[in-house]
Amino acid sequence: MATPLNLHELLQNRAPDVAPYLLGAVVRHESPEGAVAVRLTEVEAYLGPRDSADPDPGSHSYGGMTERNSTMFGPPGYLYVYFSYGMHFSANLVCRPEGFSSGCLLRAGEIVEGLELARRRRPTAKNNIELAQGPARLAKAMGFSREHNGMFALGGQVSVTLPKTPAASLMTGPRVGISGPGGTSEYLWRFWLDGEPTVSKFRPGVVRSSRRPASTAPTAQ
After folding, report:
1. 61 in helix, strand or coil?
2. Interior CA angle at 136 toward 133 and 142, to 5°?
3. How many CB atoms are located within 10 Å of the residue 72 CB?
4. In this structure, are residues 188 and 154 in contact, taking their beta carbons and an 8 Å threshold?
5. Do the Cβ atoms of 104 and 43 come closer than 8 Å?
6. Cα dihedral 105/106/107/110 (nearest 10)
7. Which of 26-40, 148-162, 198-212 has the lowest mean pLDDT?
8. CA distances (Å), origin 86, targets 82, 83, 175
9. Which residues share a beta bridge with 109?
10. Is pLDDT larger for residue 33 or for residue 178?
């Protein structure tokens, strides 16, 4: 893919093509409490249903569109925010034209604005590095919750600013915490900035129930 001219153009593409360009991008959320911004150091790409041209057994949309994952099917430029394991929220930036399931999980980053507010939201963080080191931590530090699912992310309360130049020292590997085929080396759709301390630690996926085939049970997006 050629270097995109702008974010709108970039988000017309498949998530694995979009994700590398989001490294170093700044995501900013203006809330009633104040603003917090994070410079992305790690993202993961996810695609679509089993019966699509881009089947992704690690994606929430692998089994088809549901009320929960409908935001993943576009239009691009919106947040797909979901609640997992009854514990925490995570946020994705949706891409590709409407009707195609594709999104980039905002996995980790460095807080570059609103540090004190991020600390109040994440009081258990041992240091600033841990504030957004992982998708649940990032979402909490940014103040993302269920109400932000389907929110426009390219202006207004939420904005995304691409870096002036694409990342030069990026790494890629299997996605974190995905069980079954979607977590294998066939899907090297986790991207991160080499040497960044805020990048989350890799852990393989664990099948949580023997009653469901691992290939149809995405666990980490």
Report:
1. coil
2. 80
3. 28
4. no
5. yes
6. 170
7. 198-212
8. 10, 7, 21
9. 40
10. 33
pTM for the model stands at 0.90
What's the residue count for the chain?
A: 221
Give every CB contact of residue 39 below 8 A, 6+ residues apart in sequence. 24, 25, 26, 109, 110, 112
pLDDT digits (tens, 9 = 90+) for 58-114: 999 999 999 999 999 999 999 999 998 668 999 999 999 999 999 999 999 999 999
Under a CB-based contact definition with an 8 Å cutoff, are residues 29 and 158 in contact?
yes
Confidence at residue 206, expressed as pLDDT on a 0 to 100 scale = 59
Query: Tokens 């986790």 map to which residue?
Result: 190
Token pair of 69, please? 């994952």
Q: Pick from 29, 40, 25, 59: which is nearest to 134 by CA?
A: 40
Single out the residue of 96, 26, 53, 122 nearest to residue 130, CA to CA: 122
pLDDT at 127 over 90: yes
Q: Can you give the pLDDT at residue 151?
A: 97
